Q: What sequence folds into this?
């Protein structure tokens, strides 16, 4: 029984004429301005399919025919595979799921220390997140400081993939070789590289640069993933007012052109490659010059982008980190606004929605648990209101009649409440005296206790330990090789 997300799409900020206008503006940008692509093989593929390519300046201009051709093969529905079918995610443009945090450099640990992330943190965070009910896709939430950065994606794979039941959201840092290395590591669990290509348990993300640029490494990863049937999140991380136009509408056009160009490339390489239209964009705060994931304008941008992606029948990944530094009131309201608005807008994968803080620079164990609580409440609202003969309750009202009475003693009440009401885990609903009698704990304290308990009771990988060790040894060898290749390339110049 696979995970089946709730349906979103209730909240809409754009009207149909608005989306049409964004589409036609995107066609102008693709056809007249173009996309800069640094990887020559990508330019050559576009040329072979009739696009106008300026090899001297590495610019490709794409017409509507080529866009429609690609969209005709880009699937709207596909499966992201977990370690068993209970954790398979059925993707379509309606259902809503979540993805864990990504690439924080620092952690707020369970002793209250703010420090650089370590490889041990990566494993512990993965163990914690894997046991939170509302987490559907796993990401490497931190980048360990005790591992050399270049080629670190191999080590992230070894610290995450063996410890999760979920599909793993990966990012190959060095190019095509990273994709191939991760296929080899996944094959340890899946039995063969062919089995990985048939039902991949991991995906890749490529992050394009605004405005309108595809760096060489991203095109490499995109094309190698497509060749091997690895699903791809084609992402752009724009900053309205910084790397894209300040108006949200202008940013929607830039994002759309940039992401669609990547999806077109994937479809030209291998028609039918599963692609997810993705952003991790955030407002540029003009008072600090920094990125703001918690700004209301950021939420508006992500909700509107969901509508744009769905216009092309493509599943959409949105959501981003929050600005709060600790699990406090700011963290609560920023995360709640973010996940609820994205869920209602139909963001199919709400990304960075667990534990990410400080503009994506840090991760908190306690906030992971708190975010799971917030996500549960948001998902309850996403269920909406069921109206049918049973819920209208006319027969029950007829039975009780117009008299002084309550409904607590009726079986209809207990049965309905037991099946349908959301039961919080760390949200306290007691009066002051009862709350004090139970220890008077803050939500942060309650979350910390749960996090410690989960981590202390679950220190084993999800897969057999011998497979975990084999993947770790492979990752170390691949990582070492990547660093050596970098040094060789540097010395040759």
A:
């Amino acid at each position: 029984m696979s995970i089946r997300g709730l349906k979103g799409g209730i909240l809409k900020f754009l009207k149909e004429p608005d989306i049409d206008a964004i589409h036609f503006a995107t066609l102008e940008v693709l056809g007249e301005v173009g996309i800069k692509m640094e990887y020559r093989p990508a330019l050559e593929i576009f040329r072979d399919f009739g696009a106008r390519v300026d090899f001297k300046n590495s610019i490709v201009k794409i017409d509507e025919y080529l866009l429609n051709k690609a969209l005709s093969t880009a699937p709207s529905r596909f499966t992201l595979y977990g370690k068993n079918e209970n954790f398979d995610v059925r993707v379509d443009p309606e259902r809503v799921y979540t993805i864990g945090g990504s690439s924080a450099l620092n952690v707020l640990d369970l002793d209250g220390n703010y420090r650089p992330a370590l490889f041990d943190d990566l494993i512990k965070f993965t163990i914690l997140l894997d046991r939170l009910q509302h987490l559907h896709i796993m990401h490497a939430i931190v980048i360990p400081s005790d591992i050399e950065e270049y080629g670190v994606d191999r080590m992230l794979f070894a610290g995450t993939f063996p410890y999760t039941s979920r599909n793993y959201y990966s990012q190959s840092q060095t190019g095509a070789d990273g994709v191939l290395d991760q296929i080899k590591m996944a094959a340890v669990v899946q039995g063969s590289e062919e089995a990985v290509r048939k039902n991949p348990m991991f995906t890749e993300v490529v992050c394009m640069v605004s405005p309108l640029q595809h760096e060489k490494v991203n095109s490499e990863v995109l094309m190698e993933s497509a060749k091997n049937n690895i699903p791809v999140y084609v992402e752009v991380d724009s900053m309205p007012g910084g790397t894209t136009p300040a108006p949200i509408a202008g940013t929607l056009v830039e994002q759309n052109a940039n992401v669609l160009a990547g999806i077109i490339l994937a479809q030209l390489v291998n028609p039918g490659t599963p692609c997810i239209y993705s952003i991790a964009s955030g407002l540029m705060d003009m008072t600090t010059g920094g990125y703001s994931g918690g700004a209301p304008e950021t939420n508006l941008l992500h909700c509107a982008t969901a509508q744009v992606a769905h216009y092309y029948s493509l599943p959409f990944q949105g959501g981003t980190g929050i600005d709060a530094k600790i699990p406090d009131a700011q963290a609560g309201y920023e995360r709640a606004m973010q996940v609820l608005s994205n869920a209602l807008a139909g963001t199919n994968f709400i990304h960075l929605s667990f534990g990410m803080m400080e503009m994506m620079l840090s991760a908190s164990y306690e906030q992971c648990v708190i975010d799971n609580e917030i996500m549960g409440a948001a998902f309850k609202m996403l269920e909406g209101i069921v109206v049918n003969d049973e819920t209208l309750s006319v027969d029950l009202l007829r039975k009780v009649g117009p008299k002084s009475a309550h409904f607590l003693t009726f079986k209809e009440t207990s049965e309905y409440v037991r099946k349908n009401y959301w039961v919080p885990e760390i949200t306290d609903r007691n009066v002051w005296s009862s709350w004090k009698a139970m220890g008077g704990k803050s939500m942060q304290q309650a979350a910390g206790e749960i996090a410690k308990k989960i981590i202390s009771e679950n220190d084993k990988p999800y897969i057999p330990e011998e497979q975990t060790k084999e993947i770790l040894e492979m990752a170390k060898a691949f990582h070492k090789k990547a660093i050596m290749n970098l040094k060789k390339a540097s010395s040759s110049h």
